[in-house]
Amino acid sequence: MTGNSDEPVFVRTGGQWHYNARNRVGLVLIAVTAPVVAGLLYAYAGSTRWSDAELRAAVHRAAAAVESRPRPAYALRGGYAGILRDEVHAAGEGPPHGARVEPVAGSGPADRFEVTTPDTGAAYCFSVTPPERELPEDAHGRPSSERVRLTVDVAEGPC
């Protein structure tokens, strides 16, 4: 391995192309390829998992987004869980998948939902008012087009 620049950078052996260790550029490519690929794989793995900080930020941004604009009552009848989940994923924190928003049983002054991910041990509790059962209805008992502003309280920990 003298590092002869007259040698080609790539050589073909048995139908396969590979770096030529006898060329200086080929030797540098051999040395650089493995750390670069390892770094890219590490960065990719980090971008596919939620961290505690990402989940915390996404939950608070989602609550603010839900509160920021009133929606027609008929648009809320599908359930708050889907709206909350979509807002958590749209918050721009963490990967665009993996957050779970599950309704918590029980009746009270607010509908409650627990937010978790398989990647963290953290949990957050959304309390949404008005409860879905109290949304305005028209004369026929169907959800009305009246705009409703939701209030979302966030608590750290399970509901």
Automatic annotation (TrEMBL):
<protein>
    <submittedName>
        <fullName>Uncharacterized protein</fullName>
    </submittedName>
</protein>
<keyword id="KW-0812">Transmembrane</keyword>
<feature type="transmembrane region" description="Helical">
    <location>
        <begin position="25"/>
        <end position="45"/>
    </location>
</feature>
<keyword id="KW-0472">Membrane</keyword>
<keyword id="KW-1133">Transmembrane helix</keyword>
